[in-house]
Each structure stands twice: as structure tokens, then as C-alpha cells.
Amino acid sequence: MALLALTSPLAPVVAAVEGLRLQHPDLVRCVARGLMTSGGDGWRPGTDRCALAVLLVAGWTRARRVPLPACGETFLNQAGQLGIRRARVAVLCDDPVAGAPGVVVAASRHELLQIVLEHAVDAGPELRSTLQRLKA
Questions:
Q1: In 3D, which of 21, 24, 5 has the Cα closest to residue 83?
Q2: Which of 26, 25, 95, 19 is nearest to 64 (CA)?
């Protein structure tokens, strides 16, 4: 499934999460390796607030691409790790994927951050915890 992510607007987010996995393995244990899934055998519909927090933080801080997972497109494997079948992505207007299908374009960093904050509600208090752990 990782190859699918390499051709996706999510590719930089996947790369950021996998980079974090090397430095902070405990932080990203809630995200499936490669992130992308078809949602088939071994997966059940669901979400994980810790994983959403990791994706928002990694997307914003390391890739400036913010994944916007849709209901029904997120799955959990048997280990409880999050995988995504499909997600819209929010990017800055100068990003190479701006204008592509499924991509939300933000006019400025401030606007992109507002998109992050809107989706942070779904991540709950785990977002604050994730940010604090990355600063440590």
C-alpha cells in the first residue's frame, strides 16, 4: 500500500510520518506503516484521535499538506493503527498539487493553519499532547 501513497498528494505526509517513526516511534504507533489502505481484510471502519493528531501535526509542520480524512475512508487494523483509503488534502496555493482533484487550496499559511485548527476538534486533546511530545 505504501506505493499508492507515493503517487498521492498525501505522499509528503506519509514521508513525514515515517520520518517521525524513526525519531519518535511511540508517537506514531497509532498510524499504520505507509498510512494508505484499501480497507479490505484485516481492517475495520474506524478512526483514532491520536493518529489524527499525528497526521495533522506531521502534515502541517513537516509537509505543509494537511490530510482531511473523510468519514468512511478511515480504517483500523487489528493492532488499532489508522489507515486511510482516501483523503482530501489542504495545501498552500503555490504547492504543485494545488488545483488537483480532492485538493483544498489555502491562500496563505494562516488560512492553512485555520484548516488545521478546524480539524483539530476531531483530534481532541491528543493534538496538544502530540505537539508537546514533538517539542521535547
A1: 5
A2: 95
> What does the alpha-carbon distance between residue 15 and residue 6 come to, in Å, rounded to a whole number?
9
Q: What is the pTM of this model?
A: 0.83
Which amino acid is residue 104, in one-letter code?
V
Query: What sign for the dihedral angle of Cα 130, 118, 81, 65?
Result: negative
Residue with cell 506514531: 28
Q: Please, which pLDDT band fits residue 76 given cuts at 50, 70 and 90?
A: very high
Is it the case that residue 132 has pLDDT exceeding 70? no
**How many other C-beta atoms are found inside a 10 Å radius of the C-beta of residue 16?**
22
Pairing state between β 103-106 and 87-92: parallel
Q: What are phi and psi of 76, to 5 degrees?
A: -120, 140
